[in-house]
Each structure stands twice: as C-alpha cells, then as structure tokens.
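Okay, can you check this protein?
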Amino acid sequence: MSTLNTKYLLNAHNTIKHLSLQQTISFSSIKLLYRHHFCVIQIPVMKDLQFFQKTMATVKNYLPTIVTMGNLACGFGAIVFIINNELAYAAWLVILAMIFDGLDGQVARLTKTTITWGAQLDTLADMITFGLVPAFLIGRQGAFNAPVAIWFVCFFYTLSAAIRLAKFEFEFESKNNNAGKKRSIYFTGLPSTLAGGTAASLILLDSYLKATLNIQAVSTCLPCVVFVLGILMLSKVPYIRIVDLVGSKRDPVSLLITSVLFFTLLVFFILYPSIMLALGFCVYILIGLGKHGIFRKRAIHST
C-alpha cells in the first residue's frame, strides 16, 4: 500500500513539475514574441519619422524656390492667355506674379534657407513674367496701324528689362563678396517687377474703360508708356523700397494715419480694382520722378 502511494505521489510530482516547465517556457515565448513584435513595429515607426523629418527639411530648403516657381507659372499662364487673346486674365496673372516675387525673398529670410541656384531661377522667372509678358500684352493691343513700330517698342522694353536683370545679377554676386555692405532702402531705376505691373495694370484699366465707358485713350497711349518704362528701368532715378517703408519704425500717430490710409485704399481697391491698381503704379512712378526722387543719391540696383 505504501509502495503504491509512493508511486502515485512520484507521478503526481513529475506531472506538476512538467506543467510548471511548460508554463515557464510558454511565458518566456510570449515575452520573446512580444519583444520581437515591438521591435518590428518600432523600427518602421522610427524610419517613417526620420523620412518625414528629412522630407520637411528638404521642403523647407526649397520653399523660397517653390514660391519663385509660382512666379514662373503665372508668367507661363499669362502667355497662354495672350495666345488666346484674353489679355485681362493675362494681366491679372502678372499682378499675381508680383505677389510671388515679393514673397520669395521674405520666405527665404524667415526660413533662413536658400539654394545656390535660387537667385538665378528668380532672375529668369522675372525675365519671362515682367520682361516678355508685358511686351506681348502691349503688342497684342494693336492700338495703331503700324505694328512694326509697336513691336519695336515692345522689344525695347524687353531689352531694357534684360539689361536691368543682368546688372542686378552681377551686383548680387558683388554684394555676396562684400557681405558687410548695408542695403539701401532705394532702388536705382524702376524695378522690372513694378514696370511689368504698371503695364499690366494699364491693360486692366483699358479693358475696364472700354467695357464701361467705351473709352480707348489708354490703349492709344500704351506704347508710349511702355517706352518710358523701358527708359526708367535703365535710368538712375531712385525708387523707395515699399517693403522697407512699411517695415520701418514709426510713431503711433504716423502708424495710425498709415493704417487708416491703407484700409481706405483697400476698400477702394475692392470696389474698383482696375482703377486703383493703375493709379497706385502711376503715383509710385511719378513720386520717383519728382524733385525729391531725382536728387536722392543713396540707391542701389535691384529688380
């Protein structure tokens, strides 16, 4: 009887020991499996995060250039509209391109990023949008019965823009070599961007006056205006940088007057965009030609 009890107890002990070993093995397997799956999940997450960070850094570096490409896209779209004889849409794209052209430098300063060929791309985009497109806008007007003379004026405008941009590119390289030189708040000559914007705004004014009052005086004067714009781009007449003027420190009274004037002009622009654009560009050009503008000496070339 005791022998049977001893065998029974021995078998029971072996069974319990075997079950405990299985449970230990199973628990270890679960731990290993958990660690394996955790590593498998963790590695793709880390890789995705690193890829996202690298992509965002690349986008940040190219962000000013992407804005410049918006300028170029507007110029290309304007040419398409000119081919289809939809000059008003082409003119609005030139105005939109001015916004892109003003933003790319601001974006580069805010993000503190740039690429080596970004300035060259910006110059080429300006040449197409503000050098070629306005010339073709005026050429498609057909204000006179002497198309050869009109196209000669348009070529002179394009040539002036090309010379100005070439000078700017040369001076930009020189400025990089003399990094300590402080930038002037004046342009020397009319910037090509504002020259193209002026031509585009007059196209919009001409379309508005033809549609509402049947007046064609603007289209008659456009070739002469474009010729003057070409001369101003090559001149030494200083024009103030509007960005620097807006960003300069002012006393509270001047700031209040400027704000009221800005919102008043904004309301008129919303109501009469074609008139206000042309008026704004013409006032800017005339201020540069005024007595205080001509005798300003501290100016540098810029687009």
Q: What stands out?
A: The domain at 2-294 is CATH 1.20.120.1760 (Four Helix Bundle (Hemerythrin (Met), subunit A)).
